[in-house]
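Per reviewer request, we include the raw input and output of the structure prediction for the construct analysed in the revised manuscript.
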Amino acid sequence: MRPTVHDIADKAGVSLATVDRVLNDRPGVRGVTRARVEAAIAALGYVRDVAAANLAKGRVYPLVFILPEGDNPFMRGLEAEVRRAGLHSAAERTSLSVATVPAFDAAALAKAIDAAIAEDVSGIAAVAVDAAEVSDAIARAHEAGIPVVTLVSDLAGSGRDHFVGVDNIAAGRTAGSLMGRFLGGRSGPVAVLAGSMRVRDHGERLEGFAAAMSAMPEPRTILPVLEGQDDPELSFSLIADCLANVPHLAGIYSLGAGNRGLIAALSAGGRGDLCVIVHELTGETRAALESGVVDAVLNQDAGHEVRSAIRVLRAKADGLPVNAAQERIRLDIFIKDNLPAGPDEEN
């Protein structure tokens, strides 16, 4: 049986109120008495339930999510999920807020992390940019005792506390495997549309995709990456030029969020003969999948990621272990035949 505060009080010969003052590091206890209580705690092997103590004190956890701004449907979906979770956060003693920064802007992200540190939040969740200044900002948060979760795109060497997102290398391998199988013996190179190679999730997806494609019976040429900055107009221009200049193009893998421009370029060019694989199930990619412009969508659940980040940050703030199995984010593969019901079709 686990020792209780009553056992500590009995062993130290003090009141429960004195034990409570020592456990919560409050004044009003003589040094000799404090030492006696601490000795009793050590002798009994008492392990404090931090979460219960914080509940008793009515502690509220302010958590901030730092997300890229701009025309990225998945990021806007993440933001909507944070705000939805915020509607119920008071009952869970959590206060949620969202800060947005320009996409792929490492300096702006580092500044936002520093601002969160200055506000003495209980935890930070951020979509990471692979840059030294971001790693340095995460290190400053760590020094301040504030846990940091990287969201969607990781920064493993930064000292962050946890990553919440899919295995992006595996996601890229999955896309490459699907592309190889869909194309079969058809010849021709494959184009890759990214947002920016400054975010690690895009680099990891490309790494996995290239590995899977090179393992096919007939390795296929992958053209130089087109970086559309998740901007629909730039993505449209890049894809339109690619379609015009590479007449024997066989497929396109969109590993970022430039899908609006990609789909528009494919529709304008009348290219329904390509194998096209994209990430994230949005209204646009759903319609493209249903119409046959897109062949497959790889999707991660934004709601699960937000809830996972909240659970992890709460656990880290309390010094409690993280349930790794519960926080594993699943990668879903959707084709036209297994699309889930859309928002307007749900009961």
